[in-house]
Amino acid sequence: MKVIENISELITIPNDGRHPKRGEGMRDLGIIRNVNLWIEDGKVLRITREMPDRVDEKIDARGKVVMPSFVDPHTHPVFSGYRDFELSLKISGKTYQDILKSGGGIFYTVDRTREASEDELFRESSKRIEYMIKHGTLAAESKSGYGLDLENELKILKVIRRLSREYPITLVPTFLLHVVPRKREEGDYVLEMIDALDTLKRYAVNVDVFCDKGAFSSQWTEIFLKKAREKGFNLKMHADELEYIGCSSLINKLDFISMDHLIKTPDEVIVEMSRKDTVAVLLPGTPFTLLEDKYANARKFIDNNVPVAVGTDLNPNCYTESMQEIIALSIYKMRMSVEEAITASTYNAAFATGVQDRYGSIGEGKEANLLILDIPSYTHLGYHFGVNLVSDIVWKGELI
Ligand code: NIG
Ligand code: FE
Question: How do residues 72-97 score in pLDDT, each as one tens digit?
């Protein structure tokens, strides 16, 4: 038996296990003070002030916070081709779409990713996975999308599978229709990928489309997602990030596990989302790194009872693995409360990733995937920003 003892604040996140949390529910962290946590066979056995008769390992958490590990519901971690040089272009006033249209942006990363072998991609991406884990993320949704042809998309999905097998983290693979490849017609590429869905099913559980101006139209997005749903994929969508071109309105026609970005989303869609379990995944790192002032309206989503999660959007444009940084941005840039930001980065993020049975909350009988933070109270998350507050990590009941 392992015991984490004298926990100053234990964040449990009460939940029914069947629905993501919304509204007032997002602010209820289920905090228990001065308590011990017993762990056996990888699971939380008891949350109690007592001690068991037999203890094999004791971890002292006096003056510390214990919380569920972070779940990152939106990442593009496997690529080659950093774009640090684009930062000066952005500072001089170039927009994301200017850079993309001139053959840079995603296309630059696609060229480098195609040149890289599977082993090279694995090695490069390993570093990012290590950063994720060190900063407390033990489960993440992970997208392909820098291949733009079947062979290279499969190469990326295979790397995601290898990373998930070799590191103490659960990566849930998503096939992403990212942009139309150069010199191809939109419909032609979409139809080719529809034909490849059976092959992709062996490597991915979700599909996603970057539905936006300069990427995919809502018409082709709908055609693709319908076919993918018939094949048993869960649906996700990059929607309304740059412009509203009808993408998020597909909520009326299809069931999504999440819709992401949602910066330009109209009010009618927000109302429609409040009737469903689709999680709104908000990604404040993206406008931050694009030097934009407009962030998703988190307050409107939460106050209208839409379940909200937050994620890093880890990619070569928005390069961070830290959910702690994203919590800070959620608070300072989207006016979320720290309680809402914690629920959004754990339980609701687990729901958007499809891992809520094992991640996102701490309860008796549930797998022990948790963090010990060296802070006196959870209210230091976001408040104390720019540093790593994680002092210990427990994955499947083991200290790593
Ligand atoms: O989620 N918006 C589209 N795709 C990514 C960015 C990818 C890139 O710029 O390389 C995103 O922001
Ligand atoms: Fe993204």
Answer: 999 999 999 999 999 999 999 999 88
